[in-house]
Design goal:
alpha/beta, two-stranded parallel ribbon, elongated
Length: 137
C-alpha cells in the first residue's frame, strides 16, 4: 500500500496535522510540501486484503493499494483547514518530517480495480469523514 491513513492507522498521519491545526502548533513539513503522494484509507486496505484472500485462483499478481488520485502535503493541509474552519497556521519546512518524506510517492491502483472491482475512498471525502468521525468536525 501507499501511505495508510484513517481510523486506527498505525502512524496517525492525519492526526498529526489535525492536532497541529486544532492546537495552533507549528506544522513540520518535509521539503516544500509539494511532492505528489498517494494516500489509502485503512478500510480500503482491509477490503483489498479480503478480496485477495478470498480469491481461489491465486493469480500471483502484484497490486498497489492507493487512492485514485494524488495529493501533496500542502493540498492535504488546505483540505483539513477547510474542514476544521481554520484560517491560519504556521509551517516549518525542513529536510525531514514525521508523517511524510519529501519525495514523490505515487502508485497506480488500476490493476486491482480492474481485477477485483475494488472502489477506493475518494480522498477529499475520506479526509472529511475521518475528521468528522474522530474530531467531531
Amino acid at each position: 500500500p501507499s501511505y495508510i491513513v484513517g481510523k486506527n492507522d498505525h502512524k496517525k498521519r492525519l492526526d498529526y496535522y489535525i492536532n497541529c491545526l486544532k492546537t495552533g502548533s507549528e506544522i513540520e513539513v518535509a521539503g516544500t510540501g509539494d511532492c505528489p503522494i498517494n494516500l489509502v484509507f485503512v478500510q480500503d486496505v482491509v477490503n483489498c486484503l479480503y478480496e485477495l484472500s478470498a480469491d481461489t485462483s491465486r493469480s500471483r499478481s502484484s497490486y498497489y493499494a492507493a487512492s485514485d488520485s494524488s495529493t501533496t502535503v500542502n493540498e492535504m493541509i488546505g483540505e483539513l483547514k477547510k474542514i476544521l474552519g481554520i484560517t491560519n497556521h504556521s509551517i516549518s519546512y525542513s529536510l525531514l518530517s514525521p508523517p511524510f518524506l519529501d519525495q514523490r510517492f505515487e502508485f497506480d491502483n488500476s490493476l486491482i480495480k480492474k481485477d477485483y472491482g475494488i472502489r477506493f475512498t475518494d480522498l477529499a471525502i475520506g479526509i472529511k469523514d475521518y475528521t468528522e468521525e474522530v474530531y467531531g468536525r
